[in-house]
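Lab notebook, bench 4. The sequencing result for the construct came back, and we need a structural model before the next group meeting so we can plan mutations. Quick request posted to the team channel:

Model the 3D structure of this chain.
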Amino acid sequence: MEWKFETKTDIEKIEKFAKALDYALRDDAESFLLEHNNGRPVKCAFDTQKTKERTIKKVLSYNSEDIENVYDFESVFKDSGLGLYPFATDSFGNFICFRKSDNALVFWSLEDDGVEHIADSVREFVDKLY
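Done. Here's the predicted structure in token form:
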């Protein structure tokens, strides 16, 4: 899978942010974020259990100087009460998140506050992109 515009980050930033949101990322998710921080996939469409052809714009960055970074949305996730952890955005201001209860990736629509299951892991999510 080809990715563009990735920027380097470090594990300390990832772990510190996860701790601030009371979440423990799985090792495969941490590895993915280290490799593809701020990245945009060339294949960007995916399906949820409810909707076809959703899109991922980019993986959120753990560098505060990058546009659309996790720190920009920290209060949104602390206050949501949905038990979600930010992973990526789409082009319409919605989020792809980890659900804290089971570590699955979900699509969170801000328009209707709906949550749709995408995949059980980062690898499964990436494999579903088309």
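The chain has a mean pLDDT of 96.
Will bring this to the meeting.
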